[in-house]
Specification:
The chain has 128 residues and is mainly α. It has a single domain, classed as Orthogonal Bundle (Recoverin, domain 1). 52% of the residues lie in helices and 0% in strands. The protein contains seven helices and no strands. It has helices at residues 10-18, 26-32, 37-41, 54-64, 76-79, 85-98, 108-123. Helix 1 packs across helix 7 and helix 6 packs across helix 7 (108-123). The radius of gyration is 13 Å and the shape is globular. The chain starts with 9 loop residues before the first helix and ends in a 5-residue tail after the last helix.
Length: 128
């Protein structure tokens, strides 16, 4: 599978690279949500979550669904040794920012986590 990465979807590509062979893949998620790579790439990396198409947000959830715990939030133990120590620190900070938010739709949380992760990777810090 070839994943084309642009700045607009770097956050999706970074998580996709963590996935183990045989797990849900980007192509399967695109198909499941009736999206094309071009549609996903057309989404800017930092719009308000309300401005992002539901299919794109749910595509984000599909990409990282293996990393959710029973509470529907990212479980760092499930992320395991994938990614660097910096990745884990950034994800931990993103979890602190979004795990307590209760008024999110099912696909908003994963999109926000990935958006936060993307910003953290680019800047080295997490903005609240």
């Amino acid at each position: 599978m070839k994943v084309v990465c642009s700045i607009a979807v770097l956050w999706i590509c970074l998580i996709t690279m963590w996935q183990s062979a045989g797990r849900v893949n980007a192509e399967g998620c695109l198909k499941h949500h009736n999206l094309t790579s071009a549609q996903v790439q057309a989404v800017a990396p930092s719009p308000p979550v309300a401005d992002v198409p539901v299919a794109v947000k749910c595509y984000s959830r599909c990409l990282i669904q293996d990393y959710f715990g029973d509470d529907g939030k990212i479980d760092l133990q499930k992320v395991g040794k994938r990614g660097s120590q910096e990745d884990h620190v950034i994800l931990s900070q993103c979890k602190q920012q979004f795990d307590g938010v209760t008024n999110l739709d099912t696909c908003d949380y994963p999109y926000l986590i990935l958006q936060c992760y993307f910003k953290g990777k680019q800047s080295g810090t997490i903005a609240s």
